[in-house]
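A student in our group prepared the protein record below, which I am reviewing. What it holds is a sequence and that sequence's fold in C-alpha coordinate form. My question to you is simply how this chain folds and whether the C-alpha coordinates agree. Do not assume that whoever made the record got everything right. I have pasted the whole thing underneath without changing anything:
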Amino acid sequence: MHPQRSTNQTKATAPSKIRQHRMRPNQVQHFLRLGLLAALYGMATVAPVKAAPLQLPALVVPASQEHHVGKVIFVELVTPDLTAAKRFYGGLFGWTFRDIQAGGTAYAEASLDGHPVAGLIHKTVPAGEHRQPAWLSFIAVRDVDAAKKTALQQGAKVLFEPHDIPNRGREAVFADPQGAVFAVLASSSGDPADVLAAPGEWIWSSLMTRDPDTAAAFYQTLFDYEIFDLPADKPAQHLILASDNYARASANILPANRPNAHSHWLNYLRVDDTVKMAAKVVSLGGRVLVEPRVDRHGGKVAVVSDPMGAPFGLIEWSDSESKEVTK
Protein backbone atom coordinates (compact mmCIF):
# COMPACT_ATOMS: atom_id res chain seq x y z
CA MET A 1 0.00 0.00 0.00
CA HIS A 2 1.27 3.46 -0.83
CA PRO A 3 0.68 5.96 1.99
CA GLN A 4 -1.10 8.90 0.45
CA ARG A 5 0.62 12.26 0.37
CA SER A 6 -0.96 15.58 1.12
CA THR A 7 -0.08 18.87 -0.51
CA ASN A 8 -2.69 20.94 1.29
CA GLN A 9 -0.52 22.74 3.85
CA THR A 10 -0.84 25.72 6.13
CA LYS A 11 1.90 26.85 8.47
CA ALA A 12 1.38 27.18 12.21
CA THR A 13 3.13 29.36 14.75
CA ALA A 14 6.41 27.75 15.82
CA PRO A 15 8.75 28.14 18.80
CA SER A 16 12.01 29.89 18.01
CA LYS A 17 14.18 26.82 18.60
CA ILE A 18 12.75 24.73 15.75
CA ARG A 19 10.51 25.30 12.77
CA GLN A 20 7.50 23.52 14.09
CA HIS A 21 3.90 22.75 13.09
CA ARG A 22 0.82 21.52 14.87
CA MET A 23 -0.69 18.30 13.61
CA ARG A 24 -4.38 18.17 12.89
CA PRO A 25 -6.49 16.41 15.55
CA ASN A 26 -7.22 13.40 13.34
CA GLN A 27 -3.49 12.84 12.88
CA VAL A 28 -2.55 13.19 16.53
CA GLN A 29 -3.97 9.94 17.89
CA HIS A 30 -2.05 7.70 15.49
CA PHE A 31 1.36 9.27 15.97
CA LEU A 32 1.06 9.82 19.73
CA ARG A 33 1.37 6.11 20.32
CA LEU A 34 4.62 5.87 18.40
CA GLY A 35 6.51 7.59 21.19
CA LEU A 36 4.41 6.31 24.08
CA LEU A 37 6.18 3.05 24.82
CA ALA A 38 9.60 4.14 23.65
CA ALA A 39 9.45 6.79 26.37
CA LEU A 40 9.25 4.06 28.99
CA TYR A 41 12.57 2.43 28.18
CA GLY A 42 16.13 3.76 27.87
CA MET A 43 19.14 1.88 26.52
CA ALA A 44 22.91 2.26 26.46
CA THR A 45 24.66 4.04 23.59
CA VAL A 46 25.85 1.72 20.84
CA ALA A 47 29.61 1.45 20.38
CA PRO A 48 31.27 2.66 17.15
CA VAL A 49 31.62 0.10 14.37
CA LYS A 50 35.04 -0.54 12.89
CA ALA A 51 35.34 -0.22 9.14
CA ALA A 52 35.49 -3.43 7.12
CA PRO A 53 36.04 -3.89 3.37
CA LEU A 54 32.65 -5.47 2.78
CA GLN A 55 31.02 -5.68 -0.62
CA LEU A 56 27.30 -5.58 0.06
CA PRO A 57 24.34 -5.96 -2.30
CA ALA A 58 22.62 -2.86 -3.62
CA LEU A 59 19.87 -1.46 -1.44
CA VAL A 60 17.38 -1.18 -4.32
CA VAL A 61 17.14 -3.69 -7.19
CA PRO A 62 16.64 -2.66 -9.91
CA ALA A 63 18.19 0.71 -9.15
CA SER A 64 15.86 3.70 -8.96
CA GLN A 65 16.16 7.46 -9.00
CA GLU A 66 14.14 7.86 -5.78
CA HIS A 67 15.73 9.86 -2.98
CA HIS A 68 14.03 10.50 0.35
CA VAL A 69 16.37 12.56 2.52
CA GLY A 70 15.59 11.99 6.18
CA LYS A 71 14.06 8.54 5.74
CA VAL A 72 15.44 5.56 7.68
CA ILE A 73 16.30 3.35 4.72
CA PHE A 74 18.23 0.53 6.39
CA VAL A 75 19.14 -0.87 9.80
CA GLU A 76 22.07 -2.98 10.96
CA LEU A 77 22.49 -5.02 14.11
CA VAL A 78 25.87 -4.98 15.84
CA THR A 79 25.96 -8.23 17.85
CA PRO A 80 28.52 -10.39 19.65
CA ASP A 81 26.78 -13.62 18.54
CA LEU A 82 25.84 -13.65 14.87
CA THR A 83 24.72 -17.28 14.89
CA ALA A 84 22.34 -16.76 17.80
CA ALA A 85 21.01 -13.54 16.25
CA LYS A 86 20.20 -15.27 12.96
CA ARG A 87 18.45 -18.09 14.81
CA PHE A 88 16.38 -15.63 16.87
CA TYR A 89 15.28 -13.23 14.11
CA GLY A 90 14.76 -16.03 11.61
CA GLY A 91 12.50 -17.82 14.07
CA LEU A 92 10.66 -14.64 15.04
CA PHE A 93 10.02 -13.02 11.66
CA GLY A 94 10.87 -15.70 9.10
CA TRP A 95 13.91 -13.79 7.88
CA THR A 96 16.40 -15.68 5.73
CA PHE A 97 20.11 -14.91 5.67
CA ARG A 98 23.01 -14.74 3.26
CA ASP A 99 26.44 -14.79 4.90
CA ILE A 100 29.16 -12.45 3.65
CA GLN A 101 32.79 -12.76 4.80
CA ALA A 102 35.35 -10.05 4.04
CA GLY A 103 38.47 -8.79 5.75
CA GLY A 104 37.82 -10.90 8.84
CA THR A 105 34.35 -9.39 9.30
CA ALA A 106 31.31 -11.65 9.48
CA TYR A 107 28.17 -10.07 8.02
CA ALA A 108 24.74 -11.52 7.28
CA GLU A 109 22.19 -9.97 4.95
CA ALA A 110 18.64 -10.57 6.24
CA SER A 111 15.77 -10.82 3.76
CA LEU A 112 12.01 -11.28 3.93
CA ASP A 113 10.23 -12.65 0.87
CA GLY A 114 13.32 -11.89 -1.20
CA HIS A 115 13.63 -8.26 -0.08
CA PRO A 116 16.54 -7.09 2.13
CA VAL A 117 15.34 -5.93 5.56
CA ALA A 118 18.52 -5.67 7.65
CA GLY A 119 22.19 -6.39 8.01
CA LEU A 120 23.78 -8.20 10.96
CA ILE A 121 27.43 -7.62 11.87
CA HIS A 122 29.49 -9.68 14.30
CA LYS A 123 31.36 -7.50 16.80
CA THR A 124 33.33 -9.23 19.54
CA VAL A 125 33.11 -7.61 22.97
CA PRO A 126 36.52 -7.60 24.71
CA ALA A 127 36.70 -9.55 27.95
CA GLY A 128 35.72 -7.43 30.94
CA GLU A 129 33.75 -4.92 28.88
CA HIS A 130 29.98 -4.57 28.71
CA ARG A 131 28.56 -3.19 25.49
CA GLN A 132 24.90 -3.58 24.79
CA PRO A 133 24.17 -4.84 21.27
CA ALA A 134 22.02 -2.41 19.30
CA TRP A 135 20.32 -1.74 16.01
CA LEU A 136 21.87 1.12 14.02
CA SER A 137 19.60 3.35 11.91
CA PHE A 138 20.80 4.50 8.47
CA ILE A 139 19.14 7.77 7.40
CA ALA A 140 19.12 8.82 3.76
CA VAL A 141 21.22 11.76 2.56
CA ARG A 142 22.37 12.86 -0.87
CA ASP A 143 25.89 13.90 0.21
CA VAL A 144 27.56 12.13 3.15
CA ASP A 145 30.51 14.52 3.33
CA ALA A 146 28.23 17.54 3.40
CA ALA A 147 26.21 15.84 6.14
CA LYS A 148 29.41 15.33 8.13
CA LYS A 149 30.31 19.00 7.84
CA THR A 150 26.85 20.10 8.98
CA ALA A 151 26.75 17.56 11.81
CA LEU A 152 30.11 18.73 13.16
CA GLN A 153 29.03 22.37 12.96
CA GLN A 154 25.98 21.48 15.07
CA GLY A 155 27.99 19.72 17.78
CA ALA A 156 27.89 16.08 16.65
CA LYS A 157 30.83 13.67 16.73
CA VAL A 158 32.08 11.44 13.94
CA LEU A 159 32.35 7.81 15.07
CA PHE A 160 32.99 6.30 11.64
CA GLU A 161 34.40 8.53 8.88
CA PRO A 162 32.67 8.72 5.48
CA HIS A 163 33.62 5.72 3.35
CA ASP A 164 32.39 3.92 0.26
CA ILE A 165 30.86 0.44 0.25
CA PRO A 166 30.85 -1.20 -3.21
CA ASN A 167 27.30 -1.51 -4.58
CA ARG A 168 25.81 0.08 -1.47
CA GLY A 169 26.95 3.71 -1.56
CA ARG A 170 28.71 6.08 0.82
CA GLU A 171 28.05 6.10 4.57
CA ALA A 172 29.24 7.45 7.91
CA VAL A 173 28.31 7.04 11.58
CA PHE A 174 27.78 9.96 13.96
CA ALA A 175 26.75 10.64 17.54
CA ASP A 176 24.37 13.58 17.84
CA PRO A 177 25.08 16.33 20.43
CA GLN A 178 23.16 14.36 23.08
CA GLY A 179 24.98 11.12 22.31
CA ALA A 180 22.44 9.21 20.18
CA VAL A 181 24.25 7.15 17.53
CA PHE A 182 22.98 7.06 13.95
CA ALA A 183 24.33 6.54 10.44
CA VAL A 184 23.81 8.35 7.16
CA LEU A 185 23.78 6.66 3.78
CA ALA A 186 23.84 7.99 0.23
CA SER A 187 22.58 4.89 -1.55
CA SER A 188 24.13 4.37 -4.98
CA SER A 189 21.01 2.49 -6.13
CA GLY A 190 18.45 4.99 -4.87
CA ASP A 191 16.25 4.86 -1.77
CA PRO A 192 13.47 2.35 -1.10
CA ALA A 193 10.05 3.55 -2.21
CA ASP A 194 7.55 5.01 0.25
CA VAL A 195 5.29 1.99 0.63
CA LEU A 196 3.74 0.63 3.79
CA ALA A 197 6.01 -1.93 5.46
CA ALA A 198 4.77 -5.52 5.62
CA PRO A 199 4.70 -7.50 8.89
CA GLY A 200 8.28 -8.42 9.72
CA GLU A 201 9.67 -5.20 8.23
CA TRP A 202 10.75 -1.98 9.92
CA ILE A 203 8.01 0.65 10.06
CA TRP A 204 9.00 3.31 12.60
CA SER A 205 11.92 4.88 14.51
CA SER A 206 11.83 6.88 17.74
CA LEU A 207 14.61 9.11 19.05
CA MET A 208 14.70 8.94 22.85
CA THR A 209 16.38 12.01 24.33
CA ARG A 210 16.53 14.32 27.35
CA ASP A 211 15.72 17.38 25.23
CA PRO A 212 13.44 16.62 22.25
CA ASP A 213 13.31 20.27 21.13
CA THR A 214 17.08 20.61 20.88
CA ALA A 215 17.45 17.16 19.31
CA ALA A 216 14.74 17.88 16.75
CA ALA A 217 16.45 21.15 15.84
CA PHE A 218 19.71 19.28 15.20
CA TYR A 219 18.08 16.71 12.92
CA GLN A 220 16.04 19.40 11.21
CA THR A 221 19.24 21.22 10.29
CA LEU A 222 20.80 17.99 9.05
CA PHE A 223 17.85 16.55 7.10
CA ASP A 224 15.57 19.58 6.60
CA TYR A 225 12.74 17.88 8.49
CA GLU A 226 9.40 19.48 9.09
CA ILE A 227 8.56 19.22 12.79
CA PHE A 228 5.05 18.49 14.03
CA ASP A 229 4.23 18.97 17.69
CA LEU A 230 1.82 16.44 19.20
CA PRO A 231 -0.27 17.69 22.14
CA ALA A 232 0.53 15.58 25.20
CA ASP A 233 0.34 15.76 28.95
CA LYS A 234 3.57 17.05 30.43
CA PRO A 235 6.26 15.90 31.03
CA ALA A 236 5.66 13.74 27.94
CA GLN A 237 6.74 15.32 24.68
CA HIS A 238 6.30 13.93 21.18
CA LEU A 239 7.64 15.57 18.04
CA ILE A 240 7.14 14.07 14.59
CA LEU A 241 9.99 14.44 12.07
CA ALA A 242 8.66 14.51 8.50
CA SER A 243 9.92 14.89 4.94
CA ASP A 244 8.15 14.62 1.57
CA ASN A 245 4.88 14.92 3.52
CA TYR A 246 5.62 11.61 5.26
CA ALA A 247 6.18 11.08 8.97
CA ARG A 248 9.67 9.55 9.22
CA ALA A 249 10.33 9.31 12.95
CA SER A 250 9.55 10.83 16.33
CA ALA A 251 11.58 12.59 19.03
CA ASN A 252 10.48 11.62 22.52
CA ILE A 253 11.60 12.49 26.01
CA LEU A 254 13.44 9.84 28.03
CA PRO A 255 11.63 8.62 31.16
CA ALA A 256 12.42 10.64 34.26
CA ASN A 257 12.69 7.46 36.33
CA ARG A 258 15.72 6.31 34.32
CA PRO A 259 18.30 9.02 35.11
CA ASN A 260 21.18 6.95 33.68
CA ALA A 261 19.51 6.23 30.35
CA HIS A 262 21.35 7.51 27.28
CA SER A 263 19.85 9.20 24.24
CA HIS A 264 19.30 6.59 21.53
CA TRP A 265 17.27 5.55 18.51
CA LEU A 266 14.70 2.75 18.92
CA ASN A 267 13.37 1.00 15.80
CA TYR A 268 9.98 -0.75 15.47
CA LEU A 269 8.93 -3.73 13.36
CA ARG A 270 5.39 -4.14 12.13
CA VAL A 271 3.56 -7.21 13.46
CA ASP A 272 0.02 -8.57 13.17
CA ASP A 273 -0.32 -9.41 16.88
CA THR A 274 1.96 -7.76 19.42
CA VAL A 275 0.93 -10.03 22.31
CA LYS A 276 1.66 -13.23 20.38
CA MET A 277 4.93 -11.87 19.03
CA ALA A 278 6.07 -10.74 22.47
CA ALA A 279 5.39 -14.25 23.78
CA LYS A 280 7.33 -15.66 20.82
CA VAL A 281 10.25 -13.36 21.67
CA VAL A 282 10.40 -14.93 25.13
CA SER A 283 10.10 -18.48 23.76
CA LEU A 284 13.10 -17.79 21.52
CA GLY A 285 15.23 -16.53 24.41
CA GLY A 286 14.53 -12.79 24.25
CA ARG A 287 12.95 -10.52 26.85
CA VAL A 288 9.94 -8.23 27.08
CA LEU A 289 11.15 -4.84 28.31
CA VAL A 290 7.85 -2.98 28.08
CA GLU A 291 4.72 -5.14 28.15
CA PRO A 292 2.26 -4.91 25.25
CA ARG A 293 -0.35 -2.24 25.81
CA VAL A 294 -3.21 -0.82 23.84
CA ASP A 295 -2.57 2.31 21.82
CA ARG A 296 -5.14 4.98 21.01
CA HIS A 297 -6.28 3.15 17.88
CA GLY A 298 -6.90 -0.14 19.64
CA GLY A 299 -3.70 -1.83 18.46
CA LYS A 300 -0.78 -2.73 20.70
CA VAL A 301 2.89 -1.80 20.97
CA ALA A 302 5.72 -3.29 23.04
CA VAL A 303 9.47 -3.03 23.51
CA VAL A 304 11.49 -6.24 23.56
CA SER A 305 15.10 -7.38 23.23
CA ASP A 306 16.82 -10.26 21.52
CA PRO A 307 18.77 -12.87 23.56
CA MET A 308 21.94 -10.76 23.33
CA GLY A 309 20.14 -7.67 24.69
CA ALA A 310 19.51 -5.55 21.57
CA PRO A 311 16.21 -3.66 22.05
CA PHE A 312 13.59 -3.12 19.37
CA GLY A 313 9.89 -2.37 19.21
CA LEU A 314 6.85 -4.30 18.02
CA ILE A 315 3.87 -2.38 16.68
CA GLU A 316 0.53 -3.25 15.11
CA TRP A 317 -0.28 -1.05 12.13
CA SER A 318 -3.50 -1.17 10.14
CA ASP A 319 -3.37 -1.20 6.33
CA SER A 320 -5.73 1.79 6.42
CA GLU A 321 -3.24 3.95 8.39
CA SER A 322 -0.80 5.95 6.28
CA LYS A 323 2.13 8.14 7.29
CA GLU A 324 0.63 11.16 5.57
CA VAL A 325 1.10 14.44 7.41
CA THR A 326 -0.41 17.86 6.70
CA LYS A 327 0.33 21.19 8.30
Remarks:
- The helical segments are 25-36, 82-93, 144-153, 212-223, 274-283.
- The two ends are 23 Å apart (CA to CA).
- Residues 1-16, 39-48 have pLDDT under 50 and may be disordered.
